[in-house]
Amino acid sequence: MIYTVTLNPALDYFVEIDELNVGALNRSTYDYKAPGGKGINVSRVLKRFGHNSKSLGFTGGFTGDYVRDVIEKEGIETDFIQVNGDTRINIKVKGKIESEINGVSPDIKNEYLEQLQKQLSVLNEGDALVLAGSVPSTIPDDIYETLCQGALDRKAEVFIDSSGEPMKKVIEKRPTFIKPNHHELGELFSVELKEPKEAVPYVRKLIEKGITYVLVSFAGDGAILGTNEQILYANTPKGIVRNSVGAGDSVVAGFLAAKKEKMNLEDSFKFAVATGSATAFSKGFAQREDVETLMKEITISEIGKGE
Ligand SMILES: Nc1ncnc2c1ncn2[C@@H]1O[C@H](COP(=O)(O)OP(=O)(O)O)[C@@H](O)[C@H]1O
Ligand SMILES: O=P(O)(O)OC[C@H]1O[C@](O)(COP(=O)(O)O)[C@@H](O)[C@@H]1O
């Protein structure tokens, strides 16, 4: 079973406007809402590809009910822990450019964290745990480290998509897979990375730590996948970006789905990048047939040796 954990879910509120005028009254031309948060998005994309997962984390209030109800209607199994306070609302403004304001999590008490750890004590060999998104400020920033170690001790695989201190700490535990974007990879090593080939030495360092797969996304400029054997580059397909929210989560879901379907490494990488781009090119999430079409536009090449 795949378990996704979203410590900080959200109701994503998308607002489309012609142009954002800061300091003035703006009226939207179109708006809509969707459940959000990185683990939740991974579960939703997996479901579209026919893969079940169980979505865990903390939800509260009317916004939390909305998030849970929508994803349960999509057929996703959930076991969210109910907290006091409302799940946050994240605002995504799409004018001439995209701007985002991500909200603050409700308080997460220690007893809720203990409940989550108890839920994860069922993990076993053959299971995968996805730890994705920001960590609420009331939770210690070594939480991913703790949950990752627990899952690895139980012989489950661990997939991470986060940033900042929680990411810095969890990589020391040697998770199975991480997906930083190029800013997040740069942040890990206090460097600025402008193009994919500059990421190679840092990907190598992460592989040397013992992480099995390091996938670095560079938005429309391609992606890198490092393993013990090789470091690969994939170009990204060309298209019109309609909404990039959830594109990174789609890459994680694509890689997990490919792994479940036992694709070889190159095809898994192509499938993951094509899933990210198919989401970026649509208003919602990727559809499998679009992913399969976009895969044909992706070429994989080797840009560095592993260890
Ligand atoms: N301009 C683009 N053209 C094609 N694909 C894109 C574009 N921007 C994002 N994507 C897709 O979304 C993925 C994740 O984007 P990125 O911005 O690197 O990550 P994140 O969303 O985590 O910040 C990319 O690997 C790619 O598949
Ligand atoms: O937990 P964070 O880092 O605030 O991110 C949450 C936001 O990221 C998303 O999961 C989208 O992430 P990506 O665009 O990186 O795929 C939104 O649904 C959500 O609003």
Automatic annotation (TrEMBL):
Residue intervals of the Carbohydrate kinase PfkB domain: 24-285
Record bears the keyword Nucleotide-binding: yes
Alphabetical list of CDD domains matching this protein: FruK_PfkB_like
Pathway terms, separated by semicolons: Carbohydrate metabolism; D-tagatose 6-phosphate degradation; D-glyceraldehyde 3-phosphate and glycerone phosphate from D-tagatose 6-phosphate: step 1/2
Catalytic reaction annotation: D-tagatofuranose 6-phosphate + ATP = D-tagatofuranose 1,6-bisphosphate + ADP + H(+); beta-D-fructose 1-phosphate + ATP = beta-D-fructose 1,6-bisphosphate + ADP + H(+)
Keywords carried by this UniProt record: ATP-binding, Kinase, Lactose metabolism, Nucleotide-binding, Transferase
GO molecular function, one term: 1-phosphofructokinase activity
Top EC class of this enzyme: transferase
EC number: 2.7.1.144
Domain of life: Bacteria
Stated family: Belongs to the carbohydrate kinase PfkB family. LacC subfamily.
Function text: Catalyzes the ATP-dependent phosphorylation of fructose-l-phosphate to fructose-l,6-bisphosphate.
NCBIfam families xref list: 1-PFK, pfkB
Protein name as catalogued: Tagatose-6-phosphate kinase
The organism of origin for this protein: Halalkalibacter kiskunsagensis
